[in-house]
Amino acid sequence: MKSWIRRLLPFTQWPRPRAQSLRKDAFAGITVGLVLIPQAIAYATLAGMPPVTGLYAALLPSVVGILWGSSALLAVGPVALTSLLTYAALHPLAEPESGQWVVLAIWLALYAGLIQFLLGAFRLGVIANFISNAVITGFINAAALIILLSQVPALIGLEGQNFSAALAGLQRHLADADAAWLWTLAFGLGSIALLWLQKRFAPRLPGVLVVCVVGIAVSALFSYQALGGNVVGLIPAGLPAPQWPPSLTLEQHRALLPAAVIIALISFTEAMASARTLPNPDGRLWNQNQELVGQGLAKITSGLSGAFPVSGSFSRSALNLYVGATSGWSALFAALCTLVCLLFFTGYLQHLPRAVLAAIIIVPVLNLIQPKAFLHLFRTSRDDGVVAVATFIATLIAVPYLHWGVLTGFLLAMVFFLYRRAHPRLIELGLDPAGTLRDRTLNGLPPIAPGVLSLRLDASLTYITAPLMDRFIRERLQKETDLRVILICASAVNDMDATGADTLSQLHQDLQRRGIRLALSGVKKQVRDRLAHIGLLQRLGDDNLFVNNREAIVALKAKAPEQD
């Protein structure tokens, strides 16, 4: 019964808070909350949503995510990558910040959350591992570049739907620089400079908050909006009213589902990367299925709050750890900051320049661009390097349909995976002076004994690999008519399917008719069980089953004179 309670209400396992730990969590939570508020507004604009929905996404979803998740320090809320995926998914379907856009974003959050919740509830978190690190590397680097390019116009005050229009606008501004554009440049580039200096010289300070406060003060003091500057505008005060969203057409639901799957998988891998690197101060082990449940419920809560999909934030989680958080209580204090802001301080945010928001997005996203990651993949595995580059290029080409980039990388990774499985290492073994079996061709070794062919397959015996081994043996039988024993060193065979068992059984029958023994060494239990089930274990007999290679060498060398 207790296990069910732990699974349904995992926060009941939190350690009892003490005064000292609560003080640390309060400080950490308030620090993260002060960073979260401007980031939430910035990521809402990145997702094409009204700014206030960023605060909605930072309130209840962060509480639900920490209560039902498994990581005590993972900060849940709006993040850049998930916001970009939301924008990319909805861009072909509606106008940003319109009522229809908001409804679509809500349904997208509900679908992505439901997918994650079901994966976690049915303990299918391993499915997230199907998106390889190479695919994630390629996609995140491409997505980061797309985010940067999307924020450049707001950062330096350019308008236009394409590059040529933006370039024409830049030429006009350079020819006749108006006050609003000069202020926009000052806000955008100045914010980036301040954030860089804060990170380098005062990493403990909430630099995002400082930049926003300065930006709001200067904007209000010099009437930046009246000059024609682009600001956030009036943000309504008050709490979100949870409600079911308006209905969509069947075609709109269908259009959202592929994007929901991509967001569910990509956002979870992003959260998973953060959770794995964050130690749980209370000693609990991180559980990917429980985290899927927490992340899924957080997305569903965000949708019901009128917001967009959320995820685990690496930067805010790292800040949480850096400033001394000890438990999930820090996330509750961060949510309290958002609550206070929604109730009392939204009026101050209307003067916040959008150029400052662009800088808040750009600075952390710069850390996601890692060209060295591609070089590392190529050095480790050429296949993974190709997958990462292909995913990167496909994602850039597919804009705004970013899911095609992930799908391209996933399919290419599967092709390489199947190719490697279809071409396993299959070698003939010879006896070295130390009495062990090694690659005979590579090391120029003699066979175990005259008339003995010993081989090793470094893969499971399946419908893919069984024909290769069968052909290898039969080709050797044609070339060497004096073979009397075929020894399969099966220590590397971890599994066997029906095709593998049938192939081995048929091979035994054919060899038996020709007076040739089939022997196996180092057979693992799961393989022995399959052989016993089809009766091959009994037909082979104990004389042809060896516990290990050493036993097989001794037995076959002892019988060598009789075979000669």
UniProtKB/TrEMBL annotation:
InterPro entries: SLC26A/SulP_dom, SLC26A/SulP_fam, STAS_dom, STAS_dom_sf. Signal peptide: none annotated. It is found in: Membrane. It is a multi-pass membrane protein. Keywords: Membrane, Transmembrane, Transmembrane helix. The chain crosses the membrane at residues 26-46, 58-81, 101-122, 134-156, 180-197, 209-235, 255-275, 321-345, 352-369, 389-419. Gene3D superfamilies: STAS domain. CDD domains: STAS_SulP_like_sulfate_transporter (cd07042). Residues 450-556 form the STAS domain. It holds the Pfam family Sulfate_transp. This is High affinity sulfate transporter.
